[in-house]
Amino acid sequence: MAEAAKPKKSPSTAYVPEGVSPSRRAGRRYTIRLWSVRHSRTLETLYSLFADLFLKLHPFWKAVGYQRAERPVKFLERNVKGLLFDCRMCGQCALSSTGMSCPMNCPKQLRNGPCGGVRANGNCEVEPDMPCVWVQAWKGSRNMEKGDAILNVQKPVNQSLRETSAWLRVTAEAAKAKEDAGK
After folding, report:
1. For residue 75, which of 10, 45, 61, 183 sits 20 to 30 Å off, Cα-Cα?
2. What's the CA gap between 170 and 174, in Å, rounded?
3. Angle formed by the axes of helices 27-38 and 40-56, to 10°?
4. Per the confidence metrics, is the pTM higher than 0.85?
5. Per-domain residue ranges for the chain?
């Protein structure tokens, strides 16, 4: 008796584990990132105090040289913001105006709001297991004192500032503005 021919399986070209997003980000990063959004008001206050401290340190940064300070400050910034916000070190931090949700975590790197593909459950269209960065940004901004800053249009990302310290850049700009106002 002849056996019925079994349909042949097409050969698989790559192993793709189930339940893993395309970018292979760890779930714990989402957890910490979402915690940061939930506590955006507290983080906004801490961020403001930290910015004031950095501005008070301007004479030190100037004496040492901003270029020489870049490496250790960038190391600190990458680790702190990387842990809390899953920072991508774009060099143009917008956390204070995006509800403490880093827009660079958007797979499409949109800086001014969500794309048209946000799923009904609030997740990303590109990475279905990831909460939409902009849905989270809106939630976080509603907790913040200066939450309406999310309505301000962000400039496009200047790729030449990638992998540089936004903290030092913002401090240098604030110090210059302060000096110019004093003249």
Report:
1. 45
2. 6
3. 80
4. no
5. 27-182
Q: Let me know: does 99 contact 140? Beta carbons within 8 Å.
A: yes
Q: For the segment 36-55, what is each residue's pLDDT rounded down to a tens digit?
A: 999 999 999 999 999 999 99
- Closest C-alpha to 133, from 176, 165, 180, 88: 88
Give the chain as a 3 state SS string.
CCCCCCCCCCCCCCCCCCCCCCCCCCHHHHHHHHHHHHCHHHHHHHHHHHHHHHHHCHHHHHHHCHHHHHHHHHHHHHHHHHHHHCCCCCCCCCHHHCCCCCHHHCCCCCCCCCCCCCCCCCECCCCCCCECHHHHHHHHHHHCCCHHHHHCCCCCCCHHHCCCCHHHHHHHHHHHHHHHHHC
pLDDT tens-digit series, residues 151-182: 999 999 999 999 999 999 999 999 999 999 88
